[in-house]
Amino acid sequence: MKSFLRFIKSVLLVGLLVWTITLNGAIAPAQAALRQLEEAPGQIVYQSRQTLQDQQGNSWQAIAFKRIRPNDTDMIYLRLVGFPGTADIDHSQPLVLTDSMGKTLTAADISQEMFTDKTQLKPDVSQYDLQPILMQLELAIPLRLILPALDQSEIILSVSPEMVEEWRSLTEQT
Predict the structure, then answer these.
(1) Rounded to whole angstroms, how far apart are CA atoms 5 and 11?
(2) Which helix (H) or strand (E) segment is 24 a member of?
(3) Per-residue pLDDT reduced to its tens digit, 92-124
(4) Buried/exposed code over 133-155 (b: 16+ C-beta within 10 A; e: otherwise)
(5) Which of 125, 33, 53 is nearest to 88 (CA)?
(6) How far apart are CA 83 and CA 103, in angstroms?
């Protein structure tokens, strides 16, 4: 019985490794350290920045950040920025996050909050509210972000478990 359980564990580990390699093209991407910025007196921002590639090979900047304001309110967002002309994101739809176990969550598009002048909103930039779902993301499982697009099929970005862990570490920043 012990050898059977050991076999099952090995198969699951190899399966997770193959899944990670398939999604990311490598076992583990380089870790980026959280950055701390003071935007204004008493307003601190912690950021995690990584570069992701979509299924077409286009690069996207993924910036998960926590903004702490003087009145002690804090929010955690995910901003996705594509190379100009990469995509025309459908801001009326949420970001869909799916893990390899089939768990699916959605994050509301709050791109309109990035600028006071709504005409500044770019078609290849979007921002999502991670706060309500961040702690529901599994730490050891790769994640797929599915961005809705107006001018093409959906855009799929692969996220490593290490990146999810870094995003969740934003909750610990005060």
Answers:
(1) 10
(2) helix 2-24
(3) 999 999 998 999 999 999 998 887 666 677 889
(4) bbeebeeebbbbbbbbbeeeeeb
(5) 125
(6) 29
